[in-house]
Amino acid sequence: MVRILVIGLVLVVSSNATAELIPTPDFTSHAIPTTEVPPGDGAGWEYVDVAALAIALGLASYFALVTRSRKHLFALSFASLVWFGFVRQGCVCSIGATQNVSLALFDPAYVIPITVVVFFLLPLLFTLFFGRTFCAAVCPLGAIQEFVSIKNVQIPRWVDHSLGLLAWIYLGAAVIFSATGTAFLICRYDPFVGFFRLGGNANMMIAGGVLLLIGVFIGRPYCRFLCPYGAVLSVFSRFSRFHVRIPPTQCITCGLCSEACPYGAIEAPVAPALPSEASRGRSRLGWILLASPLIVAVFAATGSMMRVPLSQMDLDVQLAQQLRMETLGLATTTTDASDAFRNARRDERVLFESVLVKQQQFGRLGLLLGAWIGVVISVKLVSLAIRRPHADYRADTKNCVSCGRCFWYCPVGDAPAGKNVANEQPEPSQLVQIT
Amino acid sequence: MRGTRVAGAIALGTLGGLLAGSHGDAEETRWQIDPDKCIGCSHCSTYCVLDESAVKCVQCFDMCGYCDICTGYLDTNYDDVNTAAENQLCPTAAVVREFVEDKAGQRFYQYTIDEDACIGCGKCVKGCALMNGSLYLQVMHDRCVNCNECAIEKACPTQAYTRVPAEKPYLVKAQAQSLYESKLADEALAQDDPVAKLMRMVTMR
Ligand code: SF4
Ligand code: SF4
Ligand code: SF4
Asked: The 4Fe-4S ferredoxin-type domain covers which part of the protein (chain A) (predicted)?
């Protein structure tokens, strides 16, 4: 005990000694200059961005639902791409704001700027009323993919559905990693931000290039299969008050729109089930409902076993491991982090304790993530097992990004917007009803 | 359907209220390096998403000893104390050495950073840390695009990156801060004095 105290004293003394500076000389004829740093531009641009977001959302909804003009939407997405993408260079965006929100909810030490909150909430609110008009012409990531979507190759339904689950899993992962303050996955693996900044992480630039290349044939691959915010938007859009409708009046089931949609977001007519089909469908649904708790449990169990690999993403955990390896003589070299840690004479105990807490946290969150994946899969299975008969071609409100291609191609004459048909399933005669 | 929508709207409102409540008077933020934590590891020059890093070195003249044998300027195995490139620590010769005065047989030199040439590698910072530590790195806010996740922050071995208010996006070393503060206090400086100007851009701890 005494020895520890003595060592402690020596440390204090020596660190005080290094704090003494060689004095700045008293020059006879030379004034000591003052450091200069380039001024920041304050927070002004953030407020401009919020205003731009609100205006763009309003315009996008107006163009999609009222003027029903693909041309206007196209022009607006170009403007959004230029402004939010190339001028403002991509940060903060609504997709990434998801992580700030989750960090703010889990970590009381992090204070979230109000503009980030607005960036997260405003598109959700608009989607709740007008469908995914944010995706149509505001999101720069959506816009850049919209422009390359030239040749439309339809992919099999089941591929579309399965890949679509990825976005939900990505969302879950992004939330737990941001909640623990470990990483902002969505930002780190943003494939297009490198283009907006005309340079950046080479791997992500390549990934972005590949996605754009795929996007030429399979529309908006990021939006459909990866975008975590798009996943949230799809739920809100499902229940939206209004939503773009394809035929302004009566659908003549020509199917042109379905061919025009590069995003597989148009549902072909579904005939009512025959009695035999209906009973088969019911029993299938029954089996799925029975199996879903099992699915959730299996994934949850797997997730909770991921505690160690998940927590290894964390910097503190990595550092603690390195320190341990060094003390045990298993590491041949030290790292910058471990050197810095030892030089700063930080307390290993404190670090290890915080790491233990973190690992427990990751155990719980891994379980939640697993359960979440199970839930996502079960919900998908259930929704696939439910048959919703309808007579005409219509936009699948979940996946439709309101880009406007379908009504551009629709041969039926024009009229203003309609209600979200998924909500009410009106009689054909009601389809013309406005608002 | 309508019920779900209302529920959705209420959920959004609650979330907004909650976040706005916990947000308090938080301002917009920028990334900055806490110079007292930085060890000049060189990650700043390589991990930034910009091709030429947003991080540059700055000289705190008030902390500098104006040494002839400057450990931030000279390579550890220098041949001679002169401005020949092979004697310089800085790979881009961004530390500019100028003779100031000969005093009591001691020659004093001023070291200034050529910001355009600096790549933020931190070599000089590491060198200077052996003496006064007047050279330190900062994220320059005419360059930084304020990534939501700063790539350097995640690579920094000492977790020296913090978010500071956008209105005052710089930090100085704790020692420099007290120096500047005393300067400001006892000279009752004018508004446009460089020290006052600098301190208006610096977040105080
Ligand atoms: S799905 Fe995501 S990336 Fe695509 S447009 Fe919508 S928010 Fe943007
Ligand atoms: S990464 Fe951290 S320790 Fe390394 S030079 Fe940058 S601020 Fe300093
Ligand atoms: S926020 Fe981005 S641009 Fe700024 S220093 Fe970090 S990586 Fe570089």
From this structure: 242-271, 391-421
